[in-house]
Amino acid sequence: MILRLTFIALAFLLLSRCATVPLTGRHQLILFPEDQMVSMSLTSYSSFLKENKLSTDAVNKQRIKNVGARISKAVEQYLAANGLQDQIANFQWEFNLVASNEPNAWCMPGGKVVFYEGILPYCQTDAGIAVVMGHEIAHAVAHHSNERMSQQALIQYGQAAATEILGHNQSDTRKALLSAAIGMGTNVGITLPFSRKHEYEADHLGLIFMAMAGYDPNEAVAFWSRMANAGTGKQPEFLSTHPADANRIAKLKAAIPEAMKYKKN
Ligand SMILES: [Zn+2]
Questions:
Q1: For residue 195, how far is its CA from the centre of ligand 1 (angstroms)?
Q2: Residue of 136 and 162 predicted with greater confidence
Q3: Which of 79-83, 138-142, 233-237 has the lowest mean pLDDT?
Q4: Rounded to the nearest whole angstrom, what is the distance from the C-alpha of residue 194 to the centroid of ligand 1?
Q5: Rounded to the nearest whole angstrom, what is the distance from the C-alpha of residue 135 to the centroid of ligand 1?
Q6: How far apart are CA 2 and CA 243, in angstroms?
Q7: pLDDT in tens, 201-222
Q8: Where in the sequence numbering do the catalytic residues fall?
Q9: Tell me: the pLDDT tens digits for 85-112?
Q10: Read out DSSP for the chain?
Q11: How far is the CA of 74 from the centre of ligand 1 (A)?
């Protein structure tokens, strides 16, 4: 009886927390309130900025800000025109470049975007930056971190613990889940590989977002091919969370004609 009630309660919780991804229309499980995701992200973001040096490369810093501003503006306009502005209601965009040779980039829930200098040789051009920018912004707009944390909380901790995590805004478990879900890396033993589903969805949306901002989505094929040929030696963290293989490139190519329909000239 208790088990059954728990099941009903859980089913109710899941149904009441179902959301829909813009453009792709996919239904997703969202357990964490978005304002809490954003406030947790802001905390992580300010400690990240304290612990990591910003780049001193004024030219590239400005390029990141320009590409970020163009894409975020295009996304905002599109969502507003389609009555979906709630999707990013708590967003306060910021685009930074940090002094690190690691090839990496991420966008937090709430729109804080960080590029690492080490990804620029793979990006090469502004359109190459737009590939990564569009992809990372897509993860945030589609609330992938929340969905991954929600799935992980249920799988790893069961319903009782999920409720517990939901109730404590700044618990260490929750903070660790968040940094893992964003792709910042975490040293507390929780790994959360990006699911292929999220990766393909972020690629798909990212192509559309870069096209909306006037960049050529064909550049994505070139970027991911450079990533795939990143050479031997230690694999960059970004590649372990974003595998660049033939499947990915084939799916990108297939999604380009749709993205071109959104292209602003
Ligand atoms: Zn990704």
A1: 9
A2: 136
A3: 233-237
A4: 7
A5: 6
A6: 43
A7: 999 999 999 999 999 999 999 9
A8: 136
A9: 999 999 999 999 999 998 999 999 999 9
A10: -HHHHHHHHHHHHHHHTEEE-TTT--EEE--S-HHHHHHHHHHHHHHHHHHSPBP--HHHHHHHHHHHHHHHHHHHHHHHHTT-GGGGTT---EEEEES--S--EEE-TTSEEEEEGGGHHHH-SHHHHHHHHHHHHHHHHTTHHHHHHHHHHHHHHHHHHHHHHHH-TT-HHHHHHHHHHHTS--SSS---PPPHHHHHHHHHHHHHHHHHTT--TTHHHHHHHHHHT--SSSPPHHHHHS---HHHHHHHHHHHHHHHTT---
A11: 20
Which of 115, 149, 152 minimizes the C-alpha distance to 131?
115
Is 114 in contact with 136 (CB distance < 8 Å)? Answer: no
